[in-house]
Amino acid sequence: MSTKTNVRSPFFLDLTAPVQTLGTFTCTTAGLSNFAVASSGFVTNPLLLAGSIVGQTATEFTVNTTGSSIPRSVTYTIAIPLGYTNVNDATIDCVQTFDQPTQAANENPNINNNCPTFAGTIPNTSGLASTAINLATYFTSGSGADISSYVVTASPSGTAISAVLTGTAPSQTLTLSTNTDCQLATFIITARQSSDNCTAISNSFTFASANCEAYDCTDANVTGGNIEQDGTVNKGTWTSGTLNALRYDGTDITTSLNAGANTTGSAVNKTITYRFNIPNGFSNSGTFDCDVVYSQPATQVLPTFDCAEAQITGGFISEQGNIAAPTLGAGTLASWTPQSFAEVSVNTPQTIYLTITPPASGYINSGGADITPPCPYIITQPATIIDCGTTQFGFAGLNSGLDRPEDFCNSGLATSYGVGGLARLSSTVASFEDLKSTVGNTVCYRLSPFRGGNKYYVIGESYGSTAEFISNYSTFYMLKIDDYGTVQEVVQWNCSGGGDGAGARVA
């Protein structure tokens, strides 16, 4: 979302685009709510405003028959979404606490023989397209009242696995099925007897479809990182999985990020273990350890603070040319030039020059003068009057953008990707061929700049009722589009290699 304010000279504005001020992701940001633990021990996972649950310390507790409530706590590991300053931390832990009520007499199957019971173990299933579970095999109604209904709970939610109950309780069948390769979810079934408000809960079990590969360190793809002389561990980056813990010599250093100082007088190798939560879509589950060896120097080597170290992000230029300065990951923004720009009739990349002061410590040039020369930074200024052009093209759908070109090969696209007939966009370029090699042009949807969110979108020349299909085994084109409809990048891609596929930046 952009911020637009009209003012007259000589006033200057300090404008901030709301999407650029996400800040640090915390448990408060995640907004966990509705966590509960039933007397039977069944855990109701919380709802989240942001982020996603990738792990938890408990999925159920024992039944409470003590006669008083018992405090219960579950620690949820939550993946940090993109856009937050601590996204490199991968996850945060948030503790939820609930007083589990004692089980009333009418809920206790040992007292009330109307309550259902569960016996046996529902097995894990893998390598199949579907499996049917006869619930009457595991659940038994009470002597005086039948099971009223079954509730199926899946974790994580949103997989391509369907869970369908057929028949009439208590003799229902649960069918788990999917047409998508390599889907994995964990299920719990709760039998309810509504008259006495009592339940019985199954064991947790998994269903995994076929054609999954095991997650390993190649998938994690840890790159970068180092250990400083004083033992400070600077984490690398990775492409798949979320970080569960960071370990050194059998000790968890996730919080301390320190592997001990090197006082030997020469460089030493130290192994840091990255423990990842295995994401959905692999044959294995739980966590996986990847060892990375770093050479720790004997003397502290300080980097030079430069424009790259400043980690410049965000910023905004209004249609009237007023500038809201970008934010820095390190250092202090002292000033910038120019202070404003004239209005433009087309979306125009503008360069501002930032004068940045290094941090007080941690760098060779700390405590000294500002970085010279000033750091150039490009922000696109939106046009006051948008020219949407007349060249029309097919578009893969208004909500189909992905963060990386590689993701189109990893998102379950088995054979082809349809782009025609779904949405019609226009561009200011002269032809579709020009669209495949031009950046800085504007694309519009219904005569307004398309809000692309800096994601990649598949395009095709057709836009009528007959769909054009982009095969996984042929080359196709994508546009990276910002929130002003401006094309930031053109990418040519091919998924024939499997996995991330292969491709190149065209312009």
Can you offer a commentary on this structure?
It is a single chain. The protein is mostly beta strands and 507 residues long. It has 5 domains: 20-103; 109-208, Sandwich (Immunoglobulin-like), CATH 2.60.40; 217-296, no CATH class; 307-381, no CATH class; 391-505, no CATH class. Helices cover 4% and strands 37% of the residues. It contains 5 helices and 38 strands. The strands form 12 sheets. The protein has an 8-stranded antiparallel β-sheet with strand order 33-32-31-29-34-36-37-38, with no helix packed on it. Strands 7, 10, 13, 14 and 15 form a 5-stranded mixed β-sheet that branches. The two termini are 27 Å apart. The relative contact order is 0.09. The model is unreliable at 1-5, 7-20 and 412-421 (pLDDT under 50).
Question: Tags for this entry?
Answer:
single chain; 507 residues; mainly beta; Immunoglobulin-like; 8-stranded antiparallel sheet; 5 helices; 38 strands; globular; disordered N terminus
Mean pLDDT: 83
Count of beta strands? 38
Residues in β-strands, percent: 35-45%
Question: What is the C-alpha radius of gyration, as a whole number of Å?
Answer: 28 Å
> What share of residues is helical?
under 10%
Shape: globular
User: N- to C-terminal separation?
Assistant: 27 Å
**Biggest sheet: strand arrangement:** 33-32-31-29-34-36-37-38
- What's the helix count? 5
- Residue stretches low in confidence (pLDDT < 50, at least 5 long) are 1-5, 7-20, 412-421
